[in-house]
UniProtKB/TrEMBL annotation, chains A, B:
Protein name per Swiss-Prot or TrEMBL: Carboxypeptidase Q
Signal peptide: 1-19
SUPFAM superfamilies: Zn-dependent exopeptidases (SSF53187)
Stretches assigned to the Peptidase M28 domain: 280-467
Domain of life: Bacteria
UniProt keyword annotation of Zinc present: yes
Subunit structure: Homodimer. The monomeric form is inactive while the homodimer is active.
GO BP, sorted A to Z: proteolysis
GO terms assigned for molecular function: carboxypeptidase activity; metal ion binding; metallodipeptidase activity
Length: 485, 485
């Protein structure tokens, strides 16, 4: 009995008022002088809609449609670097996949971007001992090294702060090696800390006269992979070659430096071009009552090229497409338009998201969200809504609760490809995925289907179908001002 | 109390007779007409020796000396392909390490071998879709492909038996792809089954007119690594190019073949030479009473070159060296000679073990054992002794029991580098390591220090010190005939 009592108490905390109570409070929601003990208002979900939600969730949890989509993308296209021929093929694949799933207005919206690809990315320990290779990846945007490579002594710093504090004399002419580790966290917050070295090593080291930058790969695993990723070289005006190396190689460097001088050769051949072709792929379920009000579901089509692009972001492509397909299969379309944005060229600068924001600035986006954090189960629901929308937030929380999704905060990010429209005022949400293991695989050759748990993928589709259906089949608005239309 | 009673009962099962009972039965051991309920005889361990064993085990379990040895080898030498300059440097490192640990007669015994190294080993899916790389490794002994690579349609077989059953017409001109998986087992027995495809694909496929061989890597992990390893091409007279590919790449091939024709390009550049230099490194603790009786401890110095040679076989080098060092630190040397053999060129044909067997055929090896199965804890003690030596086996079992080592069988293998002297009649034992995870790392870039659990390494040293000390400080013999001298 004890456990049952506790469980009931926990439910009471999460949902202080019954659905019936809530319905009595609607409309109005904000009770200015309500006593503190009063339950906060929850927007009601009519019984017919709740039945639809239940059906969507049940259908999602027993379908491997999302897995089939990502398997198709991985098998038939594979890695697809931004601006490459493979990315163009991914767009064709996406158009075919979206049409086959019965969406309308399927189209490609092209844009151009500066292209970067490393056709060679090698690093060797030259001395002490016999020359030997490290497992290395050029950082996105890195220039080529001189023909034959760039050989210099390395100087190790435990973190970026140590480099920043170092005198120029300790750095000049050397290859800076930032040996900072990354912390594992469910919400992925270790990434924001660790990734600074990827973006800032080159400009800071160059200002001190360094020859190149080398970083311990930004990741939480101990496998022999060098995580890829963009540097902010271009934005910062730096032009130093920059690479990441695997944890085991970073350890060897650290061990050897304790014994004496270590010389390393970096060899990068970068293919850099302006005005490469990319594009966003768009598809819709046209709204039956308010077609100009758009619920935007995003993921990105491009990937880094050492992996197969399964969790970054084939999983996101699959989750949003499979969730939308479940809604398309309902007896009638939701009131608002559901739009899928499969963005191009996210990894090297969010070019697709920016292009979408420009092209669609004048449309009414009710809410936007992106799936781009792997394939872990959704564990939390975050919003970035006006305070007045709190009752809707609680209604979404309640609808998502059977899937094990916890209430979150009101500081949602939305995702890189919806940044532009978020900054233009569009409310966003995060169906936050469990990222405990995400940075084991992120931007490595190990980004394969093995990194996807099919059960977690099904739960993602259920959460997405729930949120998207409810957001699209109501007239709820989440902005501070009255609804735009 | 209950748990104590159970524990006592368990001990009674493992050791049916007390030490005192056993001592009454010595000498004699074999009680021809003993009733079935009688306890089997156990050779007694005198109290002073038992105290030494206890001290050795305690010292081993609190020392990271073995870890320091393997860290030194990995950091200062790294990968060391048989016959390479790096392997020569590993011999120099070994001589220095063995001398620093106070062993005597430290020396290199050179030999030559046929050299093989892949200076290029690439594989691509050519069609369908955009050409893309697979993660691949050339199999040891593979010839080069023609300039520009070898491109052909692949034909998939679920296992070697399916290839063997196929008509020549299904194979001729194609690249055979053996997609067989490997089973995980504590004793590593899945390897013997799975590795057949590595050795037999090329000769069988060539006999049927195939263009090349491709295998799903022999391993139990799902990471994006292609396990290296020798093929038996040379022994079988085959000359087909042969490669292994990672599990995720094998899956993509399998998925694409279900959809239609798949073409693949293999590109191997092999450096093949006769009479490359290698050598065994030998060191001793000279026996104080019977110096001509040798207890042989083996491990191998060479490694495949994609990894760092940490668990294969840096760990073995460290375990045997650290165990012998503990014995060397005792107040007096054991009766018999303890000899360390750090063999060269194991991976590409056990050339070092064969050279040792030839050079030392006339010496008296009391017993031999090798550490070459990673760094997992010792979980079982196996012997290959005459039946008359069973009481010694039981004494060893008892001495090893505090370390959690289980009694095993009398079909020990000894290890590849002691095969030659085993076949010449030397008794061998296996301090069998837990290999549950070994084939996740084996022959991959992931063979790094991260694959070593320092606590398991300490337990290995304790088990080795126990066995070696006891074997060397007694006059026990394990051969069928009376002792050779």
């Amino acid at each position: 009995m004890r456990s049952i009592i506790l469980a009931t108490a926990a439910l009471a905390l999460a949902y202080p008022a019954s659905a019936q109570q809530q319905q009595q409070q609607v409309p109005g929601f904000v009770q200015a002088s309500a006593p503190p003990a009063e339950a906060p208002p929850v927007a009601p979900i009519p019984a017919a809609q709740q039945r639809t939600i239940d059906r969507l969730q049940a259908a999602a949890l027993e379908s491997d449609h999302a897995y089939e989509i990502v398997e198709s993308l991985v098998s038939e296209v594979g890695p697809r670097l931004a601006g490459s021929e493979a990315e163009a093929r991914a767009r064709d694949w996406a158009v075919g996949m979206l049409r086959a799933n019965g969406f309308t207005n399927v189209r490609i919206e092209p844009f151009t971007l500066p292209y970067w690809d490393a056709t060679r990315e090698e690093a060797h320990i030259v001395s002490p001992g016999i020359e030997r290779p490290m497992v290395a990846a050029a950082l996105g945007g890195s220039p080529s090294t001189p023909e034959g490579g760039l050989t210099a002594e390395i100087v190790r710093f435990a973190d970026m702060a140590a480099l920043e504090a170092a005198p120029n004399s300790a750095v000049a002419g050397r290859i800076v090696f930032i040996d900072e580790h990354m912390s594992r966290a469910q919400d992925g917050s270790g990434y924001g800390v660790a990734v600074r070295k990827r973006g800032r090593c080159a400009p800071v080291a160059q200002a001190k006269g360094a020859a190149a930058c080398l970083i311990r790969a930004v990741g939480t695993d101990t496998h022999r992979f060098a995580h890829q990723g963009g540097s902010s070289r271009q934005a910062q005006g730096a032009s130093l070659p920059a690479m990441s190396i695997s944890p085991a190689d970073a350890d060897v460097l650290a061990n050897l430096i304790q014994r004496g001088t270590v010389r390393v050769r970096l060899d990068i051949r970068a293919d850099i071009r302006e005005n490469a072709q990319s594009g966003n792929v768009i598809a819709e379920i046209r709204g039956r009552e308010r077609p100009d009000e758009i619920v935007l579901l995003a993921a990105h089509l491009d990937s880094w090229d050492m992996g197969q692009g399964a969790i970054d972001d084939g999983a996101g492509v699959a989750i949003v497409s499979a969730a939308a397909r479940l809604i398309r299969d309902l007896p009638r379309r939701p009131r608002r338009t559901i739009r899928i944005l499969l963005a191009g060229a996210e990894e090297n600068g969010v070019h697709g998201g920016a292009a979408y924001g420009q092209a669609h600035a004048n449309e009414t986006h009710v809410v936007a969200l992106e799936s781009d954090f792997g394939a872990g189960r959704v564990w939390r629901f975050d919003t970035r809504f006006a305070e007045s929308a709190a009752p809707y937030t609680r209604a979404f929380q309640r609808a998502l609760s059977p899937l094990g999704v916890l209430p979150g905060n009101n500081q949602a990010d939305g995702g890189a490809d919806v940044n532009a429209i978020r900054e233009a005022g569009t409310p966003v949400v995060d169906l936050s995925q469990d990222g405990t293991d995400y940075f084991n695989y992120h931007h490595t050759p190990d980004d394969t289907l093995y990194a996807i748990d099919p059960a977690a993928l099904r739960q993602n589709v259920a959460a997405w179908a729930t949120f998207v259906y409810l957001a699209a089949d109501t007239d709820w608005t989440f902005r501070g001002a009255p609804a735009a239309q």
